Amino acid sequence: MTIHFSFYFLETKLWLQGLECHFTWKLDYSRSKLESLRETLIDIISSEGVQCSWTGHLNNLLAYLHHALGSTEDALHCLKKAEEAIRLNSPDNVELSLVVHYGNLAWVHYHQGELTESQTYVEKVGRLLQDNRSTCPGVVWGERAWTLNKFHVSKRKEAVYCFRMALKGDPENKVLRCGYAIAFSKSFERKDITPKLRSEMLEHLRIARELDPEHLTITVMYLQRLADSGQVEEARKLAEEVIEKPLDSFGGFGLILSFFREYVSHDSSIDLARRTMERHPDSRQLKKYLAQCYKWKIFSPEEKRNPMRHILIENAVNLYEEVVTLYPKSLAVKLDLSAMYKESGRVDRADKIFEDLLLDREGMEPQDLQTLYNRYAQHLHYAKQDASRSIDIHKKAVEIMLPTGQRDNSYRALLSIVHKGGDRAEEIVDFLDGLDGEGAVRQF
């Protein structure tokens, strides 16, 4: 590489770093998280009937994920589809709406070593922004907000801020209003939602629903907040109205299944999932939803007393075996199948799933590894009655210092053994005290 080319390469990168696009929005998560999100977006895009204002954003984000995971060809294919969707959905403001898209293209060509093409897109962005009052137009704030909200739960509060910035320039935009309502409602953990905050969320969702009454996610989130605020009957009535019409796009479908499970019955969620799958028999997403509905019912207290429970378990096993082939990299789906095997009495098959996952744990994201250890420890305790080995694995889960429900579960399991005074109680106390460094456990 010549000195002149090296300087040109570095100069181009400096320009690229100033662009507003996915490559500069700090979306650098672990490979497993990126793969999981890629699968989710593929499901959304492949849903029949999905052609919405966000289709261009979906493809832009999917292109970034493909590139981050090493598939430039797929990235360029998605970028082409993104431009087609943006031109179709934003005819009045198409050029500014392509600012993020051109930024992505500039970065992809840069990584390919195609500096002339990269510089061409950098200059395109420069010309588009030249006559704009702001270096970050509202449409750019909007796409950044949508991307952050979709990308990861840790980005939700930043997404809310970006939606607010986008709405400053276009306060009546229904797409932005809906996006803001969703991001705001998802930016707080359930335990942190006060009555005042719940009322504010409900109001944002009500306004968004008036602007876009066909938006399923908005409608379902609205009825969930209604139920949470005590208006259960009104929420149920609205839910029944929603499912009277065939659902051809599955955004928000998981939410409405959860609503029926929680506020109506397990059978109603199963029935809805089955009816929808009959219209879309090739949808892997719907197969996964139905499998989850089976799982929820199998583990419900009332179903455990049902003498015919084994039939539902067998249906769940068969469906989960298919879903695993459709989502071969999904840890959650594999763990669900192992649980179904355990419930069906095929403990050896559940063992095999855990053995394979443990062999493949190299490079696994810490939170996924923590989840695996926690679930395996439970499996050893309940399915294998191997208390000692279960303790060893619970310790591995607790050693991963991430504040998650899985770590809390393993921590409590170890504390329970201490309280019961088991053979390894003293060892566990030393282990837990060593983690917190203050001897807190020994004070019990």
TrEMBL record:
Record keywords, A-Z: Immunity, Innate immunity, Repeat, TPR repeat
InterPro entries (alphabetical): TPR-like_helical_dom_sf (IPR011990)
Domain of life where this protein originates: Eukaryota
SUPFAM superfamilies xref list: TPR-like
GO cellular component, one term: cytosol
GO biological process: defense response to virus; innate immune response
Family recorded in the similarity comment: Belongs to the IFIT family.
Protein name: Interferon-induced protein with tetratricopeptide repeats 1-like
